[in-house]
Amino acid sequence: MEPIITKFYELLSKGEIWGMKCKDCDSITFPPKTACSYCYSRNVEWYKLSGEGKVLYVSTSILPAKRFAEYAPYVYGLVKLKEGPFFATLIDGIEPKPEALKAIFDKLPLDVTAEIKKMGGLDILIFKIKKE
Ligand SMILES: [Zn+2]
Prior knowledge:
This protein is mostly beta strands. The chain folds into two domains: about 5-50, no CATH class; about 50-130, no CATH class. It contains two helices and eight strands. It has helices at about 5-15, 100-105, and strands at about 20, 30, 45-50, 50-60, 75-80, 85-90, 110-120, 120-130. The longest helix has 11 residues, at about 5-15. The mean pLDDT is about 90. Zinc ion binds near residues 25, 27, 36 and 39.
């Protein structure tokens, strides 16, 4: 694995979520990469994220990713992190049933908070719906 990804998972296992902040355009890149996702500058540094965001869209696992297959059915969604980047991952707190998803659709976007879950031997960043 790239050192940057190794470090990302090390930090994640401590409960910390880090991205990269661009020193040229101030944008946040997540997951962290060696270059800014917005202006492609390599002038980036590690930046700790709040773990707060909003979920914009949710769906169920029709074709689960291989590493998540044993957790199916599950709900995944697109989260806009407070710091700007978008991230697609599992969403906790919604039943993977059509009725439950329909009820959620009417309320989107909803506030979510990061949760680190051990799945298939890896620490996975998921988001949980905040209680209203
Ligand atoms: Zn940039």
